[in-house]
Every structure is written in C-alpha cells, then in structure tokens.
Amino acid sequence: MFVKRIFILYFGAFIGPLGGNAVLALIPTLKDAFSVDITLVTLSITLFMVPFAFLQLFSGTISDIYNRYRVLLVGFLIYAVGSLICALSSTITVFLSARILQGFGFAFVNPVILAILGDITSEEYRGKIMGGLGSAITAGIAFGPLIAGFLAETDWRLTFILFFLLASAAGIVSNLEFRKEKFLSRRIDLRMMFSKIFNVSTQKSVVLLSISGFLVFFSMIGVMSYIPDLLSQGPYLMKDYEIGFIISMAGFAGILASPIAGVMVDRIGRIKTALFGSVIMLTTFIFLILGDSLLRFSILFSLLGFGSAIVWAPFQTLAVELIPRARGSVSSLFNSSRFFGYALAPAVLSPFYLAFSIDSIYSISASLMLVCFWLVYLIGKTRTS
User: Fold this and answer.
1) For residue 133, what are the CA distances in angstroms to 186, 198, 220, 269, 278?
2) pTM
3) What is the distance between the terminal CA atoms of the chain, rounded to a whole angstrom?
4) If both were cysteines, with which of 65, 103, 157, 342 could 48 make a disulfide (CB 3.0 to 4.6 Å apart)?
5) Can you tell me the distance from the alpha carbon of 321 to that of 316, in angstroms, rounded to the nearest whole number?
6) For 2-180+191-380, CATH number?
7) According to the model, what pLDDT value does residue 135 have?
C-alpha cells in the first residue's frame, strides 16, 4: 500500500508541470491562433502561476488544520475543469481566464503532496523519496513541451484535453485510495491558519529557503520563457516540435538527475547537494550564450535540467524538515515563494528581452544564481548554529 500511495502522489505531482510547461512550446502557435503578440501569450504563464503561487500560502496550512486528502481531491477537480476550458477557448481572454483556474486548482495539490510525503516517510530515506518526487516533477517538465509540440502539429487544443483527462484520473484514483482515511471534519479557523503562516515566516531558515526557491525558478523560467520565441525566428526558424524537444531536454535530464540528487541528499547532506546544483545552473547560464544549434541548445538545456534537479531535492527535503510540526505551512510558504519566481519571471523580464535581447536574460539569471548560492550557504550556517 505504501508504494501504491507513493506512485499516486508522484503521478499527481507530474501533472502540474506537465500543464504549466506545455505552454512554453506552444508560444508561437498560440500567437497565431489568437492573433496576439508574445506579451499576451507569455501572460498565460504568469496568470497560471500567480494564483498557483499565492494560494499555496494557505493550502498547505489548510491541510494541516483540516485534511490533506480532501484538499488534494478538490485541487485535482478544479485543475481538470480549467484544462477543459482551455481546450474549448475561442478567444485569448477565455484562455487566460482558464489558465487562472488551472493555477487555482493545482495550488491545492502541490504543497499537499509534499506534506503527505513528509507524513508517511521517515528521515533516513526521505531524501530518496524526495528525489523520486523530483523525477516525477521533471518528467512533467520534460513531457509537457514535448507532447504539446507534437500535438500542436495537429491541434493545440488536444494538449489541454489530455490534461483534463489526466487530472480527472488523478482525482478519481486519489479519492479511491484515500477515502478510507479519517477526516478530521474540523472547521477551518482563519485565525489559526494565519497564525501558523506567520509563525513559520518568522523563522530565518524558512525565509532563506523560500527566497532561494524563488531565485532558482525565476532564473530558470526567465530563460525558458524566451527561448521559444528566439528559436522560432531567424536565423534558427525552428518548428514547434524542435523547440519542444529542446525545452524537454531539461526535464529528461532532471528525471535522471533527481534519484542521484536524492542519494546525495542522504549521503553528503542537504546543503552540499544544493550548493553543487547551484554551481551547475550558474555555469549553464554563462555558457548559454554559445548556443547556436539544435544540438548545442539541447546539451545546454540538459545541463540546466540536471542542475535544477540537484537543487530541488535538498530544497524539498528541507521544506518538510525545518519545522516538522508545521510542515504543511512550511511547504506552503516555500512552494508559494518559488512559484512566484516562476510567475513573475516572464512579466518582469519581458522589457529586458525586447530591449536587450536574450543575452540580458542569461546575465540576469547567472547573477541571481550567485545570490542563491550565498543564501544556501547561510541556510547551512543557520542549521548548525
């Protein structure tokens, strides 16, 4: 039963980045389908991620107070409905509204999965379990753009129909597995919820971890948001499936790296593993300026995905260990912060991309990873002091 539950939770974690990252490969197609410019299309990333990031501040805490499994089910169902509306959208306004609904739904899935894994695992092998979670998430990152790129050759709407079916299946399966669990049926006390959030947000190690997660996603998604537009134009003139392949390489590398990261977390420690991953990401951002072909971009994105997977495993492990009695609240704050990085990157970096080209995005991302490296070092000092 334990293995079955782990698999269900991994499957649920896979669906979010699958839907979130798919839009990256669809940017050129959606520009033509809705007759809009890149600013509106990349806004669909921000509008998915803002409610996703913001509501995670509360969803994990609600699961601490009320019940993790019922919160999980509601999240899957809302995400499924949002995906279906995306598929049926006839205007960019409807599409963007549906993306908000998708983000709203998955906000009640992501931190709850992390908290449940913390509940059902013990410390001695938790790193491996979190490494497996990293593989599931990066599989979504990998297959989202790849699937979207190929389905777009027929009809981009098929991508969101697939997400509707997967989210519906995840909701049904999780309900069948967890419905026998005892529900606390406790009325949600808003004062208690905000008190728990405030208490964890005053802990230095939690704040440092949350900011680090923000910087990793901001730098990574900042690059990934504009690569598709760059590659669809001259001199590259790549097709959707080629762009999807390049972006997917980050995910495929992450699938391989995440179990390695899990073992590293258990053997050499959380901080050393996170520092190692940060160095890999920093190096990649510096060398992306050399990308000039499908092969080189694929190699560099593989390296980027490898480095990010090495970072996320120790981060997620720390999120459920820093304050065990409030791991749902810590998971909420950490996930909310890091996904705000995902949400804000396209909007904040658009002026830099339009004015100074992709090289400015590489430079900003590299600089932020230097800051992240320093923050991870401080987390280590905080934990040992």
Assistant:
1) 29, 27, 19, 18, 19
2) 0.75
3) 39
4) 103
5) 9
6) 1.20.1250.20
7) 77
